[in-house]
Amino acid sequence: MVNNFDQLKQIADLVAAQFGSAAEVVIHDFTGELDHTIVYIVNGHVTGRTIGDAPTQSFLKYMNVNHPRKSIEKVRHISHLPNGRIIRSSTANFFDEDGTLNSSLCINQDITDLVALENAVKGLSESGQFETSVLSTNGNEFDLQPSSIHGMMDNIITEALAFIGTPPDKMNKDAKIKLLQFLDERGVFMIQKSGQKVCELLGISKFTLYNYLEEARGKEK
């Protein structure tokens, strides 16, 4: 358990009490297994998550040693749940002295009713706080993930294959390196046994995988 858990829990309870049942507050602990990072959640009905669920793909980027560290991941970020509800999110990440992500505090507020009210009285106000565009179903989808970290890995691999657009058995070296770069940027290789799965997918040895990864990381710099 992270050292600052008690303090984060107090903040989570305070935020939830301030904003009410429409505000989900989540604490992630990244010092243990990636399969179960949510260690505390208030108003989990907002996104349907519970204690013990896995993190989102965006968090894997911050755990990836090749990704730049930031104390704040996102503030007032607008996204949509699969059921159409509109979510405004802010996240604070906390790091060890060596720069390793150890915990996060996330606020996910359901603003669907606020947006509807804003648009209902739009003609009475000089300018609205919420843009009408957030009602569009073409906006970002909230980054809900499977409860299993390996289910998340499978999703990212599927995205990578679609991004490359070439079947694994038809990929040349450059395409394989590009695919590995895609996976690496999303923190896939932080997941246990991910290397073995990718080797089997691409039909390469672990030695070749490490060499290709070095080339991919060299291209990122």
Automatic annotation (TrEMBL):
Residue ranges occupied by any Transcriptional regulator DauR-like HTH domain in the UniProt entry: 153-213
InterPro entries: DauR-like, DauR-like_HTH, YheO
Signal peptide (from-to): none
Highest rank taxon of the organism: Bacteria
The YheO-like domain, residue ranges: 6-119
The protein's name in its UniProt record: Transcriptional regulator
Originating organism: Anaerotruncus colihominis
